[in-house]
Amino acid sequence: MTTLRKTIPHLFLLAYVFVILYPMFFLLNTSFKKNMQIDSDPWGLPQPFTLSNYTYSFSNSKIGIYFFNSFFISTVSTLLTIILAICIAYAITRMKYPSLSKYVYAILLLSLLIPAPSLLIPLYRMVNWLHIYNTPLALIIPYTTFGIPLTVFVIAAFLKSLPKELEEAGIIDGLSVYGLLGRIVLPLTMPTLVTVFILNYLGNWNEYVLANLFLSNDNLRTLPVAVVSFFNKYNTNYGALCASVMISIAPIILIYSILQKRIIEGVMAGSVKG
């Protein structure tokens, strides 16, 4: 009976892992096939194994340019989000403005409750008014703004668990507010910062609606928008489509694989106070 109780949860976990990993395997497998084999044998292994879909993606669809655009916009937006969020979180958890801190918390909480689609028209008008349509700023500013509320909450939860004696010792040593933030708080919050960096980066990298709305110039498009270009009403290049999807998810998988230990530490960091 004990063995059965241990076996059943493992079977459910194996089934869950299979459901998660199989679509990725299917994409990877299909990306190495020719379109004729995809139509005739979609579930089989590549025969022959070919890299022509990846070659086509880089040579015929500007996938390299789209990749750089996604990398640049996602990186700049995420870094700006982290910098602004840690400053806000430090101000509302450490500085003596209790009433103001409550108002800021309330505003951030309300911003999380606003449906993103309801902001599309105001954002579009704002982008046109600022004359940044068809520029990277048209995405960097909204991405940064949307990422701040949740990032502030996560960082603030961790900062509340840090003993104030550390900062008091820094003040005795003559550190300014910026010195405390840069030399004491920032190194201690690194696991949490890595976690929110990945969360924001993943959201920015995969975002489609704003990128499709604010960037009509083909040379400025991001990967999620570019992937759709493999569809049309007459024909779909499934091999190149799967190859482009694999190219778009590869950086996220790589970053997560390298930083997974830090991510787990960050998730646990603010869970216990004291």
UniProtKB/TrEMBL annotation:
- Protein topology in the membrane: Multi-pass membrane protein
User: What Pfam families does the entry give?
Assistant: BPD_transp_1
Q: Which residues cross the membrane?
A: 12-32, 63-91, 103-124, 136-159, 180-202, 238-259
Question: Record's InterPro entries?
Answer: BP-dep_ABC_trans_perm (IPR050901), MetI-like (IPR000515), MetI-like_sf (IPR035906)
UniProt record, GO biological process: transmembrane transport
* Transit peptide keyword on record: no
Q: Which domain of life is it from?
A: Bacteria
**Keyword Ribonucleoprotein assigned:** no
Q: Where in the cell is it found?
A: Cell membrane
Question: Which is a Gene Ontology cellular component entry for this protein?
Answer: plasma membrane
Q: Which UniProt keywords apply?
A: Cell membrane, Membrane, Transmembrane, Transmembrane helix, Transport
Annotated ABC transmembrane type-1 domain ranges read 67-259
Family from the record: Belongs to the binding-protein-dependent transport system permease family.
Name the record gives this protein: Sugar ABC transporter permease
